[in-house]
């Protein structure tokens, strides 16, 4: 049976026989973002999962701090920090099975690392020694996508292909609030819903697209409401509540895996740092706003819950900190080594076989480099 | 597999046959686009494929070109070999970002780890009386994007052979189908194993000694007609059909021009910033001492594609080609 047959034929009919295809009510997001930490729901949460999330968040925060420091030392060309958004980054990775795929945007290095990609390889793009430093198939992580929302249709196509092949694979695609204005966001959600593809879209609404606040980006009640127009459920979650993000994503992944189709998840969070190290956030927002969000810090929220329930003692806290420090030290050491560069690589991967024209250009560059090195030896 | 002689066949039929044979030979080949399923495409090139292979292999997509190509990228990432139909040349523009930012460079971005074997079929060019946005020659945009192959057939046999090669290629191919040749007929008998034409080789369609007409796609028959007419003027024209704009077959083109000493590039696309400028430069760089005259171009005017009642003035025709040949400084020869 084809995908279309499974869904049943749809033909529009004129009034009075007209009726909506889908009852919109079950698709609507809740009025309030879903929360777990500090609520009764937290008691249902798996303590091991909460501790894994905590370790991941501490490590993620440290990674952001270290990578930002590397920009100041000239070891990274640029770094878009996700400080304040670690709950979304880590929960996204942990909500997936190994066979699933992650489609990150450029701010999602933490999710890429949490998925198992080497922390140095994940920074290749931002160091500038190549574009993608890891093998996407090894960890089932697509390249970090710089053009906004363009990776979303890729996630849909991959999930659709996996389903056609009979494979039990879900794709989780990440995008920001600004990215929801792009045409590719619309097309991806529409294709996903029409094909009932096993995809989960995670929008991290961090308040800003560089400098532009959400109010200038959309007039929708929430970004999660956009789901209804495509015929998929929208979920709203507190993006700084790691347990809540994980639960909502895990449910959406399960739903996709069971053939229930795509889900749009909006996680409300906040970009505590500037857009990148090259940005000056004081030009478009005040310190008091940032301070308000610091009080709702994802690590602090989780730590309070764990400590209150006796699930995290000082030794465990220290172990998480030590692990993060070790990761940072290793990252620092390896990033301080110069990346090996080979100009011949410029021509190696444009086509399966270089065209005659590219061969000629490669020979030209080689001759220039040979002449340079001869000159420098004189 | 037995072959059935289709004799004579149209280019559209040869393309259909190529898609069918590719799908039969390789279960990872998927056809997708607007109206390609039940209808068989507005030009009927995908006719019968959904019936034979099912809707999951020949899929009517939502009407959104960026979505079509973007999802094809994901399908290729998972190991499928999508063949995407863009309904018309000018309808392909919404897919440009996917094409340029991802399709053309995914292999490069990932150091060869993630090639994208996607064929993008684009009916192109004018001469069919189409109203605006149905007749563009957009090949210059594609040629200017590293990472893409750009292929265009001019004969029924090449339509089959080049499309099979494009689908088999591990690189993305923009496969430009000259609309007004869809219904051109030729005796053609599909061979087994199939005649797969290698991508990147031009072919001499007509040998001649006086001058070379360098052309491709819809302008090939026009150039052949011009070459016949030129005999009355005493010119024996050679016609080179490029077949592939990327990679470009410098060798075949330069060998021809060195023999004839004169060249005219002919295409429908506008002249300014068009393929002809690149081709003329390449010929000049390689054949300068063999040239008896500057390389000339006969191209479409540098105007938005004209309305159908005026398009005959825009399209390069026999007279305009012969005028250009006449300006190749013949007096200097004597």
From TrEMBL, chain A:
InterPro entries xref list: Alpha-ketoacid_DH_E1_comp (IPR050771), DH_E1 (IPR001017), PdhA/BkdA (IPR017596), THDP-binding (IPR029061)
SUPFAM superfamilies in alphabetical order: Thiamin diphosphate-binding fold (THDP-binding)
Alphabetized UniProt keyword annotations: Oxidoreductase, Thiamine pyrophosphate
Any single GO BP term: branched-chain amino acid catabolic process
Cofactor(s) the record lists: thiamine diphosphate
CDD domains reported for this sequence: TPP_E1_PDC_ADC_BCADC
The Dehydrogenase E1 component domain, residue ranges: 68-330
Record bears the keyword rRNA-binding: no
Pfam families xrefs: E1_dh
Top-rank lineage group of the source organism: Bacteria
Name recorded for this polypeptide: 3-methyl-2-oxobutanoate dehydrogenase (Lipoamide) E1-alpha chain
Lineage per the UniProt record: Bacteria, Bacillati, Actinomycetota, Actinomycetes, Kitasatosporales
Automatic annotation (TrEMBL), chain B:
Pfam family, one: Transketolase_C
Domain spans labelled Transketolase-like pyrimidine-binding: 9-184
Keyword Coiled coil: no
Statement: the UniProt record of this protein carries the keyword Coiled coil: no
EC number assigned by the record: 1.2.4.4
Cofactors named for this entry: thiamine diphosphate
Domain of life: Bacteria
Keyword field: Oxidoreductase
Stated name of the protein: 3-methyl-2-oxobutanoate dehydrogenase (2-methylpropanoyl-transferring)
Species the sequence originates in: Streptomyces zinciresistens K42
């Amino acid at each position: 049976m084809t995908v279309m047959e499974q869904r049943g034929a749809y033909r529009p009919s004129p009034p009075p026989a007209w009726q909506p295809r889908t009852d919109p009510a079950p698709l609507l997001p809740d009025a309030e973002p879903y929360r777990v930490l500090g609520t009764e729901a937290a008691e249902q949460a798996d303590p091991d999962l909460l501790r894994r999330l905590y370790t991941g968040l501490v490590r993620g925060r440290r990674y952001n701090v270290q990578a930002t420091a590397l920009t100041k030392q000239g070891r990274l060309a640029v770094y878009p920090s996700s400080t304040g958004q670690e709950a979304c980054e880590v929960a996204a990775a942990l909500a997936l099975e190994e066979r699933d795929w992650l489609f990150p945007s450029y701010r999602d290095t933490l999710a890429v690392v949490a998925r198992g990609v080497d922390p140095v390889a994940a920074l290749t793009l931002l160091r500038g020694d190549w574009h993608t430093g890891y093998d996407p198939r090894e960890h089932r992580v697509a390249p970090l996508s710089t053009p906004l929302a363009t990776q979303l249709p890729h996630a849909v196509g991959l999930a659709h292909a996996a389903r056609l092949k009979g494979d039990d694979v879900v794709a989780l695609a990440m995008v920001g609030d600004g990215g929801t204005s792009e045409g590719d966001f619309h097309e991806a959600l529409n294709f996903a819903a029409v094909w009932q593809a096993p995809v989960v879209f995670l929008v991290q609404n961090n308040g800003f697209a560089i400098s532009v606040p959400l109010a200038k980006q959309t007039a929708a009640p929430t970004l999660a409401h956009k789901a209804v127009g495509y015929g998929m459920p929208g979920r709203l979650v507190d993006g700084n509540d790691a347990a809540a993000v994980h639960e909502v994503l895990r449910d959406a992944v399960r739903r996709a895996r069971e053939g229930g189709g795509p889900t749009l998840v909006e996680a409300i969070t906040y970009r505590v740092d500037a857009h990148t190290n090259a940005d000056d956030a004081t030009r478009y927002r005040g310190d008091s706003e940032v301070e308000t969000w610091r009080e709702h810090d994802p690590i602090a929220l989780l730590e309070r819950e764990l400590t209150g329930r006796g699930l995290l003692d000082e030794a465990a806290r220290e172990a998480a900190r030590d692990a993060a420090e070790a990761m940072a030290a290793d990252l620092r050491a390896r990033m301080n080594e110069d990346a090996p560069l080979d100009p011949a690589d410029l021509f190696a991967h444009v086509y399966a076989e270089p065209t005659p024209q590219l061969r000629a250009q490669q020979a030209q560059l080689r001759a220039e480099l040979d002449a340079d090195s001869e000159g420098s030896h004189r | 597999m037995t072959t059935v002689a289709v004799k004579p066949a149209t280019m559209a039929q040869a393309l259909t046959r190529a898609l069918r044979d590719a799908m039969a030979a390789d279960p990872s080949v998927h056809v997708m686009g607007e109206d390609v399923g039940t209808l068989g495409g507005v030009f009927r090139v995908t006719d019968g494929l959904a019936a034979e292979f099912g809707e999951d292999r020949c899929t009517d997509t939502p009407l959104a070109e960026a979505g079509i190509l973007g999802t094809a990228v994901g399908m290729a990432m998972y190991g499928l070999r999508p063949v995407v139909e863009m309904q018309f040349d000018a309808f392909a523009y919404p897919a440009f970002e996917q094409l340029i930012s991802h399709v053309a460079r995914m292999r490069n971005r990932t150091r060869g780890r993630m090639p994208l074997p996607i064929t993008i079929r684009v009916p192109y060019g004018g001469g069919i009386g189409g109203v605006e946005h149905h007749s563009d020659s957009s090949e210059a945009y594609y040629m200017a994007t590293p990472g893409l192959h750009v292929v265009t057939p001019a004969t029924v046999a090449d339509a089959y052979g080049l499309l099979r090669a494009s689908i088999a290629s591990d690189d993305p191919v923009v496969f430009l189908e000259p609309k007004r040749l869809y219904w051109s007929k030729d005796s053609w008998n599909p061979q087994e194993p199939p005649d797969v034409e290698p991508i990147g080789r031009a072919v001499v369609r007509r040998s001649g000694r006086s001058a070379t007409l360098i052309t491709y796609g819809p302008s090939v028959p026009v150039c052949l007609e011009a070459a016949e007419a030129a005999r009355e003027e005493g010119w024996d024209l050679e016609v080179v059909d490029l077949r592939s704009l990327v990679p470009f077959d410098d060798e075949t083109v330069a060998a021809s021009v060195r023999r004839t000493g004169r060249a005219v590039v002919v295409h429908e696309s506008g002249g300014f910033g068009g393929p002809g400028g690149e081709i003329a430069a390449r010929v000049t760089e390689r054949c300068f001492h063999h040239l008896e005259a500057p390389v000339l171009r006969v191209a479409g005017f540098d105007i938005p594609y004209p309305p159908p009642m005026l398009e005959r003035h825009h399209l390069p025709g026999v007279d305009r080609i012969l005028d250009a040949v006449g300006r190749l400084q013949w007096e200097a020869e004597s």
